[in-house]
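Table S2 (text version). Query chain:
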Amino acid sequence: MDRRKKARLQSSGWAVSSAEDFLGLTEAESALIELKLNLSRLHRERRERAGLSQHALAKRLHSSQSRVAKMEAGDPSVTMDLLVRSLLVLGTPVGPLAQTIGSGRQARPSSIRR
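Corresponding structure-token output:
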């Protein structure tokens, strides 16, 4: 959020903070969520690049299309193990996986509340 907009909101009585603060997340919880979201984005990109539908990938994983959709949506019920295994089934080299894991935190979205 730009400085002017933030200042305008605060002068109107709004509290502006990060999603982490709003939800009461620890740094570790926030980092884990961001890591899973980064892996989910990589998953979708690799699946589409491979020209596979969610259904076709699900067959290779002995899973369901809805589970693949949940992986790509960053659903909290999806384990890191399943995400990484699926990325490996898609032929993702270890380098891009390591780069995604090591990419660090991205900018945090702000939460606005009154």
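Notes on Table S2: Confidence is low (pLDDT under 50) at residues 106-114. DSSP finds seven helices and two strands in the chain.
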